[in-house]
Amino acid sequence: MIAKPERPINIKNLVIEEPQVRKETFSFNLADEVSASYVVDLINHLSPKDWHFEAQAKQLALLARLMDIEPEFSPRARVRLAQEYKRVDANWWMLPGISATRKLSEPQFETSVMYKSFSDHAEDWVAIKNGPISMIDVVERFRDLKICLPQKFEDLAFTDEDIQKMIRNRRASNSLSLKANLTYAAHLKFMFGIEPEELLSKTEITQALKLFYDAKQSPDAEGYIELATELAILGAKSVEIYKSGTIKLVPKAKADPLTDQAIPLPETRRF
User: Fold this and answer.
1) What is this structure's pTM?
2) What's the Rg (C-alpha) of the chain?
3) Cα torsion at 101, 105, 106, 107 (round to 10°)?
4) Which of 94, 112, 165, 230 is the most buried (most CB within 10 A)?
């Protein structure tokens, strides 16, 4: 019997298959985790006499907008917000917080005072932007500015280097509690679309979820709504802001088990 000759092997065609692993990202479905009726009930019962009234009002108004709920505060609460707005209207650094609350809760809110304040203190805003930003309250002022005057926020023209500097400064900060970093990361995601993995490890994200579910079983509504808001922002693809004061969460695409699989990529081996 005549043996068949062996076919020559073209080593250039030798390939190995290495799977392309899809990077896992954090997601959080706000509608599944927080009841709309619960948020409405909290808004209805928010009292001007409550401790941290202004902070609670802003947090509830933002959470409501994220859930596509019109935040209708009681007449007494609206009067208190108007009084607070008048009290700080000459304080350019404090004005963005109350302006953001009113813009979120009052669709017809006139932002001319805030606009003039920003114009008068544009150099101050730029100086702070160029400084060593690492504190939560400073970052929150910029977030509030984006809520009430989105175009003026864009005019500050944060660069990638500015954002990376904020991340580096935060990592180097002495205030490294999980809750503080979660809040800071949520503000960066809201403003710039920075993914939570830039500041938080997988362990910290898991711990943050545990904090949320613990708060869900607690009577502490303030902590619960704050965590829900931050996790919703961090778990979204992006946040969109409209002139009307409406804020929309753009959800991340769900994985398709039939198409979103590891894809083998041929790699040519050279000898």
Assistant:
1) 0.83
2) 24
3) 110
4) 230
CA geometry: angle 256, 260, 265, nearest 5 deg: 165
Contact residues for 153 (Cβ-Cβ < 8 A; gap 6+)? 142, 145, 146, 191
Taking only the tens place, the pLDDT of each residue in 143-178 is 999 999 999 999 999 999 999 999 988 888 766 789
Report CA-CA distances (Å) from 82 to 48, 63, 65, 95, 99.
11, 20, 20, 12, 10
Average pLDDT of the segment spanning 29-44:
94
Count Cβ atoms below 10 Å from residue 115 Cβ, excluding itself. Answer: 15
Could you tell me the CA-to-CA distances from 261 to 24, 26, 103, 257 in Å, in that order? 12, 18, 43, 7
Q: How far apart are the first and last CA of the chain?
A: 35
Q: % helix / strand / coil in the chain, to the nearest 5?
A: 55, 5, 35
Please give the Cα distance from 177 to 165 (Å, whole number). 19
Q: CA 7 → CA 3, 4, 148, 252, 271, distances in Å?
A: 12, 9, 73, 51, 19
What angle (nearest 5°) sits at the alpha carbon of residue 42, between those of residues 36 and 55? 115
CA 270 vs. chain centroid, Å, equals 46
Helices (H) and strands (E) in the chain, counts: 13, 4
pLDDT tens-place string over residues 234-259: 999 999 998 777 899 998 876 444 33
What's the CA gap between 97 and 85, in Å, rounded?
9
- Torsion (CA) 94, 100, 102, 104 in degrees, nearest 10: -170
> How far apart are the C-alpha atoms of 231 and 26, rounded to whole Å?
9
Contact 86/113 with Cβ under 8 angstroms? no
The one-letter amino acid code at 269 reads R
